[in-house]
Write the structure tokens for this entry.
Amino acid sequence: MELNFIQSLFKHFNFTNVDWEITEQYFHIGELKAREFFLNEGKVSDRIGVVESGLLRTFCYDENGNEITTQFHVPGTLVISNTSFNQQVLSRENIKAIEFSKLIIFTYKNMQELLKRVPAWQQIPLAASEYKNRQKEKRILELQTMSAKERYLKFLEKYPQICRSATVGQIASYLGIDIATLSRIRRNI
């Protein structure tokens, strides 16, 4: 189990040992093979996960049927389709493993029970939502203010493991640039 996950519960949300003992009853460890879906567009998200190992990505399709990568999920990060999971509506996103991945998985039903049984859990969805919103704001600002080369260099520095596993097309769509531009940038650095 991802030690950072357990440590962050105790550190940031004042978990007690009893809180953790209850929490352990409400999740399971799941595995996804490379190219296996965690969530398909058009389905209601009935689970969330924390990546223990591996790599996943969230993507949707544009009007021409091209995949647009909106997020990568590395170890220690939350895998969720926020709107679909929280409002129990059909997802507009796909979440798929890029490589073999292990996750700590909570079902929607179990999460609702945890929120009732462990008061500390009531803080976590709000904190996760605020974190995701900050990340989106930061990403929008970078897309609007940084050059393609600057975005790639920052991405390369922050996520070298993604650069080793994701395709050039997936990275290019995430960075908001075309494949030819990214290939040229990669050749010149």
Remarks:
- The two ends are 38 Å apart (CA to CA).
- Residues 124-145 form the longest helix (22 residues).
- The chain has a mean pLDDT of 94.
